[in-house]
Predict the 3D structure of the following.
Amino acid sequence: MGTTVTKEQNSAAAKAVVDNLSKRFSDAGITTEAVAHAAGKKFEFVRIICAPEQWRAVAKHLKNEIGVNHCAMVTGTHYPSGGDDRGWEVAYHMHRWPIQDVEAHTMIVHKGENLEGDDIPMEFEIFIPLAAGDSPSVPSVQDLWVGADWNEKETWDLVGIDFEGHENMHRVLNPHDSPVGFHPLQRQHKIRYHDFNEMYDDPQGFDRKPVDEGRVK
Amino acid sequence: MAEMWITMGPQHPMTHGLWTLRVKVDGETVTDTEAELGYIHRGVEKICESRDFTQITPYCDRLCYVSAMTWAHSYVMAAEDLLGAEVPERAEYIRLMAAEVQRLASHLMWLGAFGPDIGNLTLMTWCLRDREMFLDLLQELGGSRMHYNYPRVGGVKRDIPIGWANRMKAKVKLFENRINEYEMLLDESTIWLVRLQGVGYATAEDQLNAGVTGPNIRAAGVNADARWTNPYSVYDQVDWEPAVEKPTSVKGADCYDRYRVRMEEMRQSCRMLLDAIEKIPGGANTHYQPGDEMLITKAPTRAPEGATGFSTYECTRGVSNFYLQGGGDGRGKNPYRVSIRSPMFITIPYVAKTMIGYKVADIPAIMGSYDPCIGETDR
């Protein structure tokens, strides 16, 4: 039978992390909660909502005290109609996996059921809402998790969110000579296939007009 | 001797796809590297914003043409999380078997492409021969050889055909013996050992901090595997254990360890398949009509604004993540934002840096041992 993490371990670990975080950041206005997935095994994960100026402190605490060792992905989202407080949002997804202080040249085969404390795997979701405007910006965590490096490059490249303190920022997926300020996942850019906008905006063609409309009697 | 930059790629046998590795060399020694990606960036994330939840699955198939089933599976898990859909247990078993057959096919494609890199052309013909068996199995499920569009939000498209179970068992048992043949071919080949051993060291902690996951990290001596750390599907009910390799040096895993761990992982996939087909609810030789409640449940088609879905999935090359936000066009029929984490997008820049200090001739061995796939890297 394959090893696995049980639901009891998962909810205990989520509760421990939430307690730890709310104790440390109780008066800073940071929301921390354990949320259960809606599908699958309905495991819990930790969701944190914090302001960009608090993010470095939260990140350091996550790394050093809670043992988050893997930055899975960084997602930037543009909300043109999201109001002044939430014109943009950056979501960091992180994992804690039982790879702490692994001695070199050894083999550690964890039994999921036997893990306890900081070794229990956990998912983290950190939302950082940003004010509306032309220059959204978040402190970088490139120095804490090397894995955040190219994720942040990609987020800047595609969404246009600046990461303060990120070294060697450059285009990674778009061509290197893309115009300054061109970030295709911003919502003002519509998808189009050559000149046929309707191919994507109106796949069924209800709004399609003949090309010679207005010129034919 | 003066240092100089050499550009390997975008057309180079080492790259296994379209990307460029710029290498700074001092004589034969690599002193700096730089990876350039994005040659086949298709904007999948942007396209998905104007598609509804079922229409996105084929795009996810096309993220990685070697491992389409696992990517579609990963996506539907995130969509189910967003929409709150339950999956019938039989469908979970079918998905598990489809994913493991795909893992076998993908690892065979990796081995087949890795062999010629090292100078073993026989390996490629053997691997492609055996991969055909598994592609046939997947073709019976999804209808095509590469892009199956098989998992659905809330289940699977159709049941396993009558006789699929027996064909699968026969092929898997045959292939278990073939793995031994591969090992006889490779582990006793001096060229293979000389090119792989002592090259491309990386420790587990370094790799995880850099975001490298999957077989590459298990080669360094830790069984970090999303199939048990973030349990999904029915992996807790079938017989398997994560493939782990004890690194040969204190410096971590070398290319040989990464080859060994994938061979072991293929054995574990075989073991899982043979066990899952015995345990499948409803029986292996019954066929339910498409849309039967054993195969698929009706899932909501719209997600409200503010809802999010997230999946962690052990893809063949590492952990893939999907993050979806509800409330897009069509009153929530489309996702507002789809974000995809590709394991290789993070791995390739890391691997490029681990090459520093080795010889130029080691580059194909190091890069190949990480199993790069550019389709998923550039998205």
